[in-house]
User: What shape does this take?
Amino acid sequence: MQCFVYRSARHADTYVFVPRADDFEELPADLREHLGRLDFSMEIELTPDRQLAKTDGQNVLDSFAERGFYLQMPDRWQPVR
Assistant: This one.
């Protein structure tokens, strides 16, 4: 399955993965506001066994099924300066 990755313009190393390009319908309004502008980062082919930087494809697919998106945050969350 195709997966589209967007980075938060407001928070360093914070990414939102969604199953459809530019579709942020499933993100809660307060989360969208907190993340600020979301800039397209990349499109990837997602499989359950694909290893990603901080997780694997199965975790992202599970999050899509449960929430409609996957949020990747750094270990220590801080604003972009």
